[in-house]
Amino acid sequence: MKFATKTIHGGIAPDEHTGAIMTPIYQTSTYIQSEPGVHKGYEYSRTQNPTREALENNIACLENGKKGLVFSSGLAAIDTLLKTFSPGDEILSSNDLYGGSYRLFTKVYQDFGIKFKFISFDNPGDVKQHITENTKMIWLETPTNPMMNIIDIKAISDLSKEHDLLLAVDNTFASPYLQTPIDLGADLVMHSVTKYMSGHSDVVMGALVVKEDAHLAERLAFLQNSCGAVPGPQDCFLVLRGIKTLHLRMQRHCENAGKIAEFLDAHPKVGRVYYPGLKSHPNHDVASRQMRGFGGMISFTTKEPTVEAATKVISNTKVFHLAESLGGVESLCGHPASMTHAAIPKEVREKSGVVDSLIRLSVGVEDVDDLIDDLKQALNHI
Ligand SMILES: Cc1ncc(COP(=O)(O)O)c(C=O)c1O
């Protein structure tokens, strides 16, 4: 199946009892057994639920993986993955990443003895020096949140294979419409499903997709059931519904963002624009090679390098709403330094470019002329 067909049919079948075309919401905590242990494959909804199962199969199919698992948030998905490691294990992570992932790594798992090194993956040749005998996994975000750096997944996967490391990619910003890391050599993909996958800002959810339905998949399924951070069936239904238009939404997100990036790039009150679709972006070539479009996320700085200038812009937009999160049909703007990335110390975040005048846009699927007019009038407030 091609991608557009997979969004609608991948891993999903009409309900065999009624013929319902939409996956029913199995709003049940338990399932009857005719005698102990004799049942129809479902015992208790933390362990298995048919609506959740349909979504897990659908997401695995979109990511070209063998096993999908969904969780009650993106961070719960990462948390479950981290539980597969032991004290003393080391994880190499991209140094520009979602603040909540950074907080989970440094403020929770570091205390349990897992070590994290935050490094740049810009030059894959420089990564080798950070690998030790204790290194177990490479964790990448690409495009990175919020600096929109692009990491060459294929190059890093060659390295991870050479050193027998697990390669995990947070694919939240791209979605499988734009990029399928498993095809580029990753072992595992993570999503904040809350974002593009769900697409309508009405659900908080996470997912892991594993390349092979082998030991790691089994261990993650064991942890999903043992630790219990599972989403409810109603939310799974909403995401199944959202995914049916993922390809259409992503197409428009990309079109709109491309035009807005060009508009911002030419604006006299704008400093730097970070969008992988711009030829001036330092990783434009890698993005063109590994992505099927450049996405709906843009970051930019105001030319006046102050928090006041950035605040004037994001407090005066009318169509772009000031809010955390991204990937919904509606356009949002945010201030990473004080919002999504506030958990990262100032000196650390500024090193990767998250300065006080940085604004992040999640470009929605509204009419692009309205979006540009909105930014134009907001920039006039500086
Ligand atoms: C790139 C990325 N990864 C992970 C997460 C965490 O996901 P959630 O908010 O669903 O827990 C987010 C949330 O913004 C994110 O942007």
Give an overview of the whole structure:
The protein has a seven-stranded mixed beta sheet with strand order 1-7-6-5-4-2-3, with helices on both faces. It has 13 helices and twelve strands. The termini are far apart. Helix 2 packs parallel to helix 8. The protein is of the alpha/beta class and 382 residues long. Bound molecules: pyridoxal-5'-phosphate. The site of pyridoxal-5'-phosphate (PLP) has 15 residues, from helix 3 and helix 4. Pyridoxal-5'-phosphate binds next to helix 3 and helix 4.
Any descriptors?
single chain
Q: How would a crystallographer describe the biggest sheet? A: 7 strands, mixed
Amino-to-carboxy terminus distance:
50 Å
Question: What is the number of beta strands?
Answer: 12
Task: Report the uncertain regions.
Answer: none
Biggest sheet strand order reads: 1-7-6-5-4-2-3
As a whole number of angstroms, the C-alpha radius of gyration is: 21 Å
Shape assignment: globular
* Number of contiguous helices: 13
Helix content: 25-40%
Provide the residue-averaged pLDDT: 97
Q: What percent of residues are in strands?
A: 15-25%
Structural class: alpha/beta
Distinct small molecules bound, one entry per kind: pyridoxal-5'-phosphate
> Strand-and-helix sequence, N→C?
HHEHEHEEHEHEEHHHEHEHEEHEH
